[in-house]
Amino acid sequence: MKPVCLVIGAGAGIGGNVGKRFARGGYHAVLCRRSDEDGLRTLVESIEAEGGSASGVLLNAAEPDSIEDRIRAVETDIGPIEVLVFNLGAQIGDRALQDTSYKAFELGWRLATFALFRAASAICPLMEARGTGTILVTSATAAVRGNAGQHSHAAAMGGRRMLCQTLNAEFSSKGIHVAHVLIDGAVDAPDTLGKMLGPERFQQLRESRGQEHDGLMLPAKMAETYFHLAQQHRSAWTHEIDLRAFSDRPWWNH
Ligand SMILES: NC(=O)c1ccc[n+]([C@@H]2O[C@H](COP(=O)([O-])OP(=O)(O)OC[C@H]3O[C@@H](n4cnc5c(N)ncnc54)[C@H](OP(=O)(O)O)[C@@H]3O)[C@@H](O)[C@H]2O)c1
Question: Is ligand 1 within 6 A of the CB of residue 60?
């Protein structure tokens, strides 16, 4: 039986590419996203075309029990989840305080922080019983730096980072490796950044900073880091790592 890698938030950017990388590395990738069944099918087919193994399922992480039920179903129907990739974003764009409704603020927390807590509550007891498991949590600059208009996103991502540290404090010695992967810059991700900017601005960004300029992070390249994290020996685990394009200044320098 292949080890299982469950990706929560598998679009065409980081999530999908991390799933592909794990499938290439011998895992069965279970790919979950909220909408776009066609996108999921395309992703699964592209993995299968390479000789890998994957399945895709729609899941709305904001709905009660959605994550918990999916984790239970994967464990029962497919196999023990060795790697959980938690990749949900919670970016709503820059909004002044008065334009950030209670609802928008709370939704950021629900997706960035509480959904990770729910996933951890479901998977950690199972991984603990097995004495092994890896939880890779994608994060953002907002986890370490508040900024104008980022009330919801920064508060929620800061919570995500602290939750990762707290999970590590409880579960590292029990064999569970939790890594907080801080993405410090823009990713060539059509389903998230692409939709937020719209097709025209996204294309302009790709032409000015992406493509041969390598100033937009490439999800397929980022996926190598995720795969490596899951293969680390427990005597030398990374608990926090950041990724940014060579031409970007790090978050602490601007
Ligand atoms: N893109 C960037 O520039 C950037 C920068 C810094 C950090 N990040 C971090 O990177 C991660 C996302 O990676 P990515 O941008 O490359 O995107 P991606 O992996 O291409 O896609 C993420 C997927 O998450 C899914 N998702 C969102 N809300 C969901 C929900 N409620 N339930 C289930 N699925 C949901 C979306 O599915 P649907 O499309 O089907 O709704 C989306 O396709 C986030 O943690 C984000 O904070 C991204």
Answer: yes
pLDDT confidence of residue 17: 98
Domain CATH for 94:
3.40.50.720
Give distance in angstroms: CA of 33 to centre of ligand 1. Answer: 9
* pLDDT tens by residue, 59-116: 999 999 999 999 999 999 999 999 999 999 999 889 999 999 999 999 999 999 999 9
Whether 204 is in a domain gets the answer no
Within-domain flag for 113: yes
Q: How confident is the model at residue 254 (pLDDT cuts 50, 70, 90)?
A: confident
Q: Is residue 83 included in any domain, yes or no?
A: yes
* pTM, two decimal places: 0.98
Structural domain includes residue 111: yes
Q: Supply the range of the domain harboring residue 168.
A: 4-187+220-236
Cα 197 to ligand 1 centroid, rounded to whole Å = 14
Place of tokens 């951890």: 120
CB atoms within 10 A of CB 234: 11
Ligand 1 mutation target, pool 46, 58, 183, 251, most atoms within 8 A of CB = 183
Instruction: Give me the number of domains the chain comprises.
Output: 1
CB atoms inside a 10 Å sphere around CB 113: 20
Residue 183 CB less than 6 A away from ligand 1: yes
